[in-house]
Amino acid sequence: MASETFTFYIQPWYRKSPYFEATKRHGCKSWGLYNHMLLPTLYDDPVTEYRALLNDVTLWDVAVERCVEVRGPDAFDLVNLITCRDLTKVEPMQARYVLLTAPWGGIVNDPVLLRLDRDRFWLALADSDALLFLAGVAGARGMDASIFEADVAPMQIQGPRSKDVMRDLLGDAVADLRYYFCAEAEVDGIPVVISRTGWTGEVGYELYLQDVSRGDQLFERVFQAGEPYGIRVIAPSEARRIEAGIFNYGSDIRIEDTPLHVSGLERFVEWDQGADFLGRRRLEEIRDGDLLDRKLVGIEIGGEPMTDEGALNDFWPLVEGDARVGKITAGAWSPRLQRNIGYAWVPIRWEAPGSAFEAESSRGRVPVTVASLPFVDPTKDIPKS
Predict the structure, then answer these.
(1) How far apart are the C-alpha atoms of 117 and 91, rounded to whole Å?
(2) 3-class SS at 190?
(3) Contact at 8 Å (CB) between 229 and 56?
(4) Which of 162, 216, 304, 324 is the most buried (most CB within 10 A)?
(5) Are the CB atoms for 232 and 86 separated by under 8 Å?
(6) Which residues pair with 249 in a beta bridge?
């Protein structure tokens, strides 16, 4: 299948990462836009990048995960109000995957939250203008909190040898951080915050650079530390995140979707917390009533391996006979599973694994079957190891 070639012009208002020049030196071939910033999307063949992630260690520029900082007397109350998770269970220097919910229950964003102090939080955002949402809620309720974009730039170090790299860079205490815990440290005098998190389902860390003038220096220092372990600079791996049951805000889920509509996200609505949160009453109505009309589910996609495309770059209609019943939001070839896997929105009556459809792909109709999520490591033993 012949691939199409397009020209992408970098405009002055597209923000560049502090690691932008380093990614060019390391062979980045294409960029996309994410949170108004350039995101590296390809260095090498996606399968080659995937195998480096599974077998060795990889380095990613993810400065596009723009961090909204919330601090001040009402910081905790504000952040606890806009997420359906119970933040009383999160101590300083711990992290959580959280869902920010609107009054009607829709998902505004699904960031990683870092609690740096009792009244200081970072929200490492997916692609949306969630800062404006926080500012609106705080203003409407008269809350005393400062809300601004922190001047930090995350990178990810992911893969089974990432612990070796972190041990050489920062010692045992940082390398042995527990899953979803944080620490402050310095790399050759460069201040960073480290969290034991990542967008892979592999062992991994995120380093939040706190002096963006030294981005190039930090990138090369991390790469140097990783060279004995076969480090490779790659883009975010679509295949690996789908295997792990990780969703991409903006394509898989949007603000019209609630946590109850998404397979696996229901568990992040913590009903037993004492405090109220935005959207709670609407989510209770959906939970207790007959109001759930659709579900985002895992799928296996038939047809030829998606190795030419690398990953799905458009929505594919999902059909039963001549009737359109949903859409595929993500798809990629899994070298480990030797099949195409992805996500699709389906009517709630067909959410069970084994439900069968067809998709209208660029190559004609292909069979689609609903599958259980996640596809790999359902108890998350790999990233916790």
Answers:
(1) 8
(2) strand
(3) yes
(4) 162
(5) no
(6) 253
The dihedral sign for the CA sequence 259, 260, 266, 271 = positive
- Measured in degrees and rounded to the nearest 5, phi and psi for residue 188 equal 50, 40
Dihedral of CA 260/263/268/274: which sign? positive
- How do residues 115-136 score in pLDDT, each as one tens digit? 999 999 999 999 999 999 999 9
Angle at which helices 162-170 and 215-226 cross, to 10° = 120
Give the pLDDT confidence of 48-57 residue by residue, as tens digits.
999 999 999 9
Report pLDDT for 3: 53
The distance of Cα 338 from the centroid of its chain, to the nearest Å, equals 23
Max CA separation in the chain (angstroms): 63
281: enclosing H helix or E strand: helix 280-288
The pLDDT confidence band at residue 2, using thresholds 50, 70 and 90, is: very low
Q: Is the full-model pTM beyond 0.90? A: yes
Triad 47, 48, 51: Cα angle to 5°: 85
The amino acid present at 130, given as its one-letter code, is: A
